[in-house]
Amino acid sequence: MTTQPVAVDDxxxxxxxxxxxxxxxxxxxxxxxxxxxxxxxxxxxxxxAELRDADADLLPGLAAAPADAVFIALHGSTGEDxxxxxxxxxxxxxxxxxxxAACRLAWDKPAAKSVVRAAGVTTPDWVxxxxxxxxELGAGAVLDLIVARLGLxxxxxxxSGGSALGAQKVGRVEDLPAAMVSCFAYGDTVLxxxxxxxxxxxxxxxxxxxxxxxxxxxxxxxxxxxFDYTSRYTPGLTEYHTPARVDDDVAxxxxxxxxxxxxxxxxxxxxRTDLIVDAEGTVHFLEVNVSPGLTETSMFPMAVEAAGHRxxxxxxxxxxxxxxxx
Amino acid sequence: MxxxxxxxxxxxxxxxxxxxxxxxxxxxxxxARTHGMKSSEIRALFSVVSRPEVVSxxxxxPAVTALPLDAVGSMIGELVSGMGAQTLQYGSGxxxxxxxxxxxxxxxxxxxxxxxxxxxVVTVGSQQGLDLVTRVFVDPGDVVLAEAPxxxxxxxxxxxxxxxxQHVLMDDEGxxxxxxxxxxxxxxxxxxxxxxxxxxxxxxxxxxxxxxxxRRAKVMEIADRYDLLVVEDNPYGLLGFDxxxxxxxxxxxxxxxxxxxxxxxxxxxxxxxxxxxxxxAVREKxxxxxxxxxxxxxSLTQYAVARYLDTQPWQQQIKTFIELYRxxxxxxLESLSALMPPGTTWTRPDGxxxxxxxxxxxxxxxxxxxxxxxxxxxxxxxxxxxxxGQGKEYMRLSYCYPEPDQIRExxxxxxxxxxxxxxxxxxxxxxxxxxxxxxxxxxxxxxxxEPITGPASSDQVGDQP
Lengths: 326, 465
Known about the structure:
heterodimer, A: 4-stranded parallel beta sheet, 14 strands, globular, B: alpha/beta, 8-stranded mixed beta sheet, 14 helices, about 10% strand
């Protein structure tokens, strides 16, 4: 896998970027951390960048001081489900990242899995059900069917959302009801997936004007064995290996899978696809993030660095592309 | 439009330093006491609290805007322009003598009439006072007794000192003396070194309850019999709604009680001025410890507090605070009674900042927090107030900061969250909601005498619409 060196334009100092971060979701803190990193990287790259929350002051602020392009570092709903992008479209303000409709699709993890599977990428078998189905048909009977069909262990996670919030590995059938209860606190639909054991990879994709390209895969090796919220955001609790410690052909298949996912879902500019490589070397798609984390412990910036670039330069390039779409 | 210009490869001009695979090259070197310091989902969820759409019943922030801000502002301005040579300079490690005199006047309001300024050490909030006391007394592995639940900031201090916390039951009347004695007997049998009892007798954080007069006597009698040192933390004692301040434990025993006081709730938490009152020998060690830690408490804020006490109607100001908090407490209790589903119980504080709420059986306050965030209401899950993983079914509600109307809205949202969780538990069989629905409003929910793990009142009685 190769990436081209990223170069910056001579007129970068003319570009004014607004970085959206915060929002009113579970991932507000992560988003603020991402947004701060992005603003610092852009300022170092010589841009005029400003951090703004997605609140009632946003649209009047953008009207009063128009931005050449917006960078969306919002995580969780609003930022990733396409809503903010749809509003920016209405306002005619260009932004970095995927269009609203593609975000809506990627945000819905079960729908995204269907599209990705149809595009030929392997993904663990799953079922996604709302609370009402369990209530109406009887939770015990439905859970029995799930276990009979998908086996154990299972991954239980909210059907939308990121940062591993609410995601749990369930190894024993008696732990399943409690996992469902805690997962439903995050949203009305739960995604239950066959658990695949293996090497976790995060493959970032960027499109710098010549089509989507995969950056070097980041291998994730959490000390606890589970890449949960604590493992993600506490430096020292997880080892990250770039390049991943996998054979070249596996790395290539992972890169191909991430690009396929990016294209199949109609994504633009940047994405991060989470994959797992099982003992046979099969690459399984887990989920895709249209607004990948950009914190100090996030995988997208690691991949950018591993490709030999500076984050600020890549983001600057993406902002210029977005501004040109106006 | 911009274009790729490979003649300016940034990576070539300034190589990016390689990352450590764990992102932290010092990961293997940290002290054992830092191992509990990790990012947590709970903390992350709290970040939404800063948004105005969210009603926060979480933080215990005093209502400082009720202070005469102009008067305080000009007072502090004069301290700098008129007394800069003192107020901007290092000071005594023990604290400003004039302030220590005034602290003795404040403590006299709670019956401590024999304190000498020489026994007072001024600290950076009472939090530093507790840290100093813990440093002076506790070795790793020693036992500290604390109420169940206890102040989360104190548990943090004890954890950092690698103390083992043994919780002691409380109920609506505060710490249960029999439980204290049982804990002491247990510890003796195990050969544990019990260094002290940490207790908040007035308007407890988080439980909201107050140790009764009768129990104060019993607790001190047990302390005497078992040669137990008592650390009395009293930040809220002057904020009672219905009666004069109660007599402090320290007023009953000057040798066995170390007293922690604070101006954070009676004046300003931002000034960070608190104090420790301790017997002279202990005071000596506390001064040495504080000098090693911070050299001296900040001069400017000490002068500010002393000047405030000298020139402003501070006792009148406390009455203003009391009226404000009483109104907010009433809004909280009325809303809870009107809106919370059966099976929920809570304490009825007559001072301070907090209501301690117990959820219907089977519900977990931490697990339902994402739903609360979605509903734009915040609270603190009870589990943080225990050192041993108890407290899942509890939450702390703070009424000190939001306006009464916001409190009513917050409780309305919280009630919906609890209802939704009950619905979920019904589906998945963890909770028999029908059992709660079957409880008639006139039936007490909680046995009147049986001590429980954490206090819960029978507030539901007769209060349902």
